[in-house]
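Lab channel / #folding
Pinned by the channel admin:
"Please post every new chain as: sequence first, then the structure tokens as a reply. Keep commentary short and put observations after the output so the thread stays searchable."

First post following the new format, from NK:
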Amino acid sequence: MTTPQNIATDTVLAAGPILGTVGVSGLTLCTGLVLVLGWRGAKRVKMDRDKSGGLGIVFGTLAVAAGGLWSDLAKGVSEIPASVVQGGIFGDIGLGAVALSLSALTFLPDWKKTVAPGLLGISAGVTYGMAGGLWGLCSMFVLKIGASLGAM
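Reply from TO:
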């Protein structure tokens, strides 16, 4: 028989000893907040092009893993740049090439503002998981780290 005391004990044990119940959605929220605060120019978050792109990739990957509204938001951001690259003008381009192109667009141009590389990074992070292969391995690596942090 399950008692309220057993349920409470199971919940505390599942929460983890260090960070409590963070989970992938909580990590996605925190990553998104750091990204937006960096874009807004918070003094404690020094954001440059590479940090914005990297955090965008992590946010996009975690958002797809979190599912729900997070996944819808990241996939919505991802649709426009991915459709431009894969739109048919350039021929039959696979998702691996789209992921590579989005990564190049994220890190190679000399962006004056940090929002564009962050949004392109989100799009790249979403595309990595869909492309499979090496891209999928990188995506799974980020998800494993997120799951490990969420279990702490």
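NK: Residues 1-15 have pLDDT under 50 and may be disordered.
TO: also worth noting, The chain is about 75% helix and 0% strand.
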